[in-house]
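Bug #77: duplicate submission created two jobs. Keeping one. Sequence:
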Amino acid sequence: MIAETIAPASVFEARALARLRREPPGFLERRADLKGDHALDPESWPDLDEGIQPRVAAVLVPVVAHPTGASILLTERAANMRQHSGQIAFPGGKMDPEDATPLATALREAEEEIGLDQRHVRPLGYLDAYLSGTNFFVVPAVAMVEPGFHLRINPHEVACAFEVPLDFLMDERHHELHAREWKGRIRTYYAMPFEGRYIWGVTAGILRNMHERLYGDGA
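Kept job's structure:
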């Protein structure tokens, strides 16, 4: 299904408020419905029955409410990062014990990574959790961001921040299936190339899940 025109931020916000989770998803609350890398690559499913507990993380999906149309704010991870260096990502990270909710984690990480002041952020709700192939249980919190913010990039974590039109990311025609060899086998994943930037992996998977929840058949 190709998403209808959803550029006006008010239209997106109304739809999101009607369809997003009000509360964060519980850990493996419905294992059969768990989203993640394994959806396209079943062999990547971790052996949870053997007691391998995923680490909990949260990301912010920041939808910027420009008058000319909404966009999603993304980051490019710094080249010196030990994991996923140079990849396109949402602001976010591991949930700390002092974080009361995944939303608190996402907001804290967004401020630490790119200096996004929480005064500009209006939370809307949660997407379904995403289990990554690296064994992270990622909880995405969706929020509207009012224009006028000023970012302060932390160069130790982030190379840059940029925006992609929401219409582009929510259009199923741009959800490409790519494949590459990883650890001796072929891995299939979503990718959404945009103006020379390669959006793929967990980030593309979360965007795909966002499309299915907000604009998919039966939504």
